[in-house]
Amino acid sequence: MNARRYSRQIPLLGEEGQQALRSSRVGLVGLGGLGCNALTHLATAGVGSFVLVDHQFPEESNLNRQFVHCLVGPSVSKADSAAAWVASLNPDAEVVAVTGSLEGTDAVEMLRGCDVILDCLDNNESRLRLNSFALEGRIPVVHAAVQEWHGQVMVVDAGVGPCLGCILPSHECSSPPVIGSVAGVIGSLQASEAIKVITGIGEVLIGRLLSVDISRNSYQSWDLERKPGCPHCSSLIE
Ligand SMILES: [Zn+2]
Predict the structure, then answer these.
(1) What is the pLDDT of residues 102-132, one digit of tens each?
(2) Which is nearest to 121 in space by CA: 12, 228, 32?
(3) Which of 6, 66, 91, 186 could pair with 151 as two cysteines, CB 3.0-4.6 Å apart?
(4) How far does the centroid of ligand 1 lie from the alpha carbon of residue 162, in Å?
């Protein structure tokens, strides 16, 4: 480990915390606005291994927030583009890039070995699929979502607090407008939660939803309860 590279964060994380990042394997599902930001901070923080999953290729309308893909053409998948980005930021990091969805066996096999998974997805159907997979494998998930000037972050720890099935609304807006810098704030918060989960430092947003409105500079958080009879997590607890 290059201690000088991390000398400004080791006083906060300790040698043990830095080594925990180095030894960790982090999954990111979705490499859009949230994923680009969270990945950047985790790669530069010294996370040792990534599994990057996205089935899409970049489109021009992505580029107001998905800066990782600005240097590649539309023929390079987001997963491959993000893998090259990590290599440029931190050549010590290992990356497995999966151009596919969560239904694919490649993604499932690779994510199974992760210590934490970041939900950087843009729709609740895929989020619930990730939720079920992670609950089954007892892998913590750092959930985030962003829309217009708003965003939210919560951590799901199987069997402890509510899962995504307990909290996500049944309706959602598809392709909502998004300010890129807001995705930056929320993606950075998501990376910070992942660092805390991995190192065991600080208070993690397990079962606590942080809601951010950048247009009003409002940051609020509150505890959420499990939904009685939730089809996703009830069997883990009752
Ligand atoms: Zn649940």
Answers:
(1) 888 789 999 999 999 999 999 999 999 999 9
(2) 32
(3) 186
(4) 5
Residue length of the chain:
238
**126 with 102: CB under 8 angstroms?**
yes
Coil, helix or strand at residue 148: strand
In angstroms, how far is the first alpha carbon of the chain from the final one?
44
How far is Cα of residue 13 from the mean position of the Cα atoms in its chain? 20
3-state secondary structure 11-58: HHHHHHHHHHHHHCEEEEECCCHHHHHHHHHHHHHCCCEEEEECCCCC
Place of tokens 């995705």: 183
Instruction: Look at the pTM and tell me if it is higher than 0.90.
Output: yes
Residue-level pLDDT at 174: 78
% of residues, the chain, pLDDT over 70 = 99
User: What's the 231 CA to ligand 1 centre distance in angstroms?
Assistant: 7
Residue 123 CA to ligand 1 centre (angstroms) = 17
What is the band of 237 on the pLDDT scale with cuts at 50, 70, 90? Answer: low
Instruction: Measure 139 CA to ligand 1 centroid, in angstroms.
Output: 14
The residues annotated with a catalytic role in the active site are 173
Between CA 161 and CA 233, with CA 223 as vertex, the angle to 5 degrees is 25
Question: Quick one: CATH architecture of 10-237?
Answer: 3-Layer(aba) Sandwich (3.40)
Task: Report CA(120)–ligand 1 centroid distance (Å).
Answer: 19
Token pair belonging to 139 = 């892998």
